[in-house]
Amino acid sequence: MLYGDERDRILVDKYIMYPMLLTIFNRDLKVIAVSPFKLRQPYVTLIENVMNAISFELKDVKKEMMARKIKVTDGRPVDDITEYQIFIRGYQEVMRFPNVHLRNKAELLMKHFLFGTLIERK
User: What is the mean pLDDT of the chain?
Assistant: First the structure.
């Protein structure tokens, strides 16, 4: 990130990743709804609680981004990367993320929200 500081980068990262996590968990809820679990309600409750926590954090991220004058456009897929335009206090830059990086980051964040800590890969 050229024009922002570390806090700006963290905000942009969360702004990109949290909606992605909500989409993933929402799809998982649909799968659980039609799966042959004997007791599916505990899984549904767990995922719904995680989604609520992510939604509350995303709300705070959006407020702080507004206060810091940061805007992010929706991701635009280009081959095997996703491209975002970031506007930071009047400056514009383009950030490109490999889709595999976004997937791996989403997996780590899912573990964080489900288990309470970030679990390192071995």
Answer: 91
Sorted by where each begins, the domain ranges of the chain are: 6-115
In Å, what is the CA distance from 71 to each residue of 2, 21, 68, 109? Answer: 15, 20, 9, 22
Question: How does pLDDT run across 46-87, given as a tens digit for each residue?
Answer: 999 999 999 999 999 999 999 999 999 988 998 899 999 999
pLDDT higher than 80, residue 119: no
Say if residue 28's pLDDT is above 70. Answer: yes
